[in-house]
Amino acid sequence: MKKKISGASAQGARNACTLAAAVAAAMMMVPGAAQADIVIGEVAGTKLSMFGIIDVGLLYNSKANASGDSKTSMETSGLRQTVIGFKGERELQPNLTAFFNLESHFDTNDGFLHGTGDAPRGGTNNTPLFRRQANLGVRGDWGSVTVGRQYGPALLAHIGTEPRAFKEQFSNLYAWAYGQLFTTANAPGGDRNTNNDVGIFFSNAVQYRHTVGPVNFGVLYAFGGQPGSAKDNSSYALGATYNGPITLSASYQAMNDEQTGKSNIEHTSLGFAIPFGDFIWKNNWMNAKNDARTGAELADINGFGTGLDWKWHAKNSATVAYYINKDDRNKTDETKFLVISNDYQWRPDTTLYVQFAYADADAGATLRTSIVAAGVTAGEKSTLLNVGLNFMF
Fold it and tell me: What was the pLDDT predicted at 24?
């Protein structure tokens, strides 16, 4: 005999399923996660595969400079970053599998490797070939351990609660990145941490990840590699997500100075998402404290985003989001954004996207408070329109 479910319980179950599906979809869109891997070889129990995302479109900006000139340009990576990567795995014994990840980031409009937020390390070309991932690890039903360059657990914790799931354009992905860039990209002798690339990618790192019931979490430590001190140049990060009837997310990470061991950056973020019917309401707050190696405060950036996702058709998803980002240390560095977008999925691996943003930037607005990759003109109100195609494999 089947148990009868009340109308309220049934609606709650539908909401939970809706949110779970949305979070699953968002995780499929995590930077570097393509729709499906292409198996390119399997020999002696070792499977090799490749994956990729190709994304390109056009971007219009009504006020691209202080003179008020408009600009239309080809823009790489509007919905998701353009990448190509390789994976491999082999079973070592029951419940123990070894794996590797190599992932490169490039620009579709010109074919060059994408820039980096890494601290300069000498030479004329500081852009790593495998900027996003170059790691080796083992996993089982006890979790996974990954060693090498990799995504930190903090940003990954908030994929399901950031209003636009950290899309490459017009989301707080850029406030996250630029808010953690300025004291870590300096030359030797300046305030810097060489293991951190915009608070997203970490070098010389070890990470443990696991899922316990509805909670997925990760803990990462990046070795400083400095003589005489384990703290100098080290980084650590924690992130956790609860996926239940609602989604909750929390994270914290810190990067220590290469020479003094003082925190150059401390970053905290909290978020939640609530489903109802065909809608999901998402909210995310984050704070980035930037300090000099002397301990002097350089920036204290607060970013808040709220948005509503609407699955209005089998192939269409619309989002309305509002962002307000401000550096409390530099009071005129504030930007406010209204974003409206729609993603049309021709098929699960091919998406046509249209996204519009209205920006209101204070006189001292900088990249630190921007949701636009190239920033917006300080002291101006501007409109931006981005139309593009995203192809995953």
Answer: 37
The pair of structure tokens assigned to 138 is: 């083992």
Task: Report how far residue 179's alpha carbon sits from residue 288's, in angstroms, rounded to the nearest whole number.
Answer: 6
How is residue 229 annotated by DSSP? Answer: B
- 0.85 surpassed by pTM: yes
CA dihedral angle for residue 318, residue 217, residue 80, residue 265, rounded to 10 degrees: 110
Measuring CA to CA, which residue among 36, 264, 253 is closest to residue 158? 253
3-state DSSP call for residue 172? Answer: coil
Question: From CA 161, how far away is CA 164, in angstroms rounded?
Answer: 8
* Angstrom distance (rounded) from CA 197 to CA 116: 7
**Sign (positive or negative) of CA dihedral 195, 200, 201, 206:** positive
What are the residues whose beta carbons fall under 8 Å from the beta carbon of 341, sequence distance 6 or more?
164, 167, 170, 318, 319, 353, 354, 355, 356
- DSSP-based three-state secondary structure for 35: coil
Identify residue 346 by its one-letter amino acid code: W
Q: Could you list the mean pLDDT of each consecutive 10-residue stretch along the chain, which spans 393 residues?
A: 35 38 39 63 91 97 95 96 96 96 96 92 78 97 98 98 97 96 87 94 98 98 96 97 98 96 96 97 98 93 98 97 97 97 96 98 96 95 98 95
Could you write out the three-class secondary structure of 308-372? EEEEEECCEEEEEEEEEEEECCCCCCEEEEEEEEEEEEEECCEEEEEEEEEEEECCCCCHHHCCC
Q: In residues, how long is the chain?
A: 393
Burial of 290 (0-12, 13-18, 19+ CB in 10 A): buried
d(CA 262, CA 240): 25
To the nearest 10°, the Cα dihedral for 73, 316, 162, 220? Answer: -90
Q: Quote the radius of gyration of the chain (alpha carbons, Å).
A: 21
In the chain, the domains with their CATH numbers are: 7-392 (2.40.160.10)
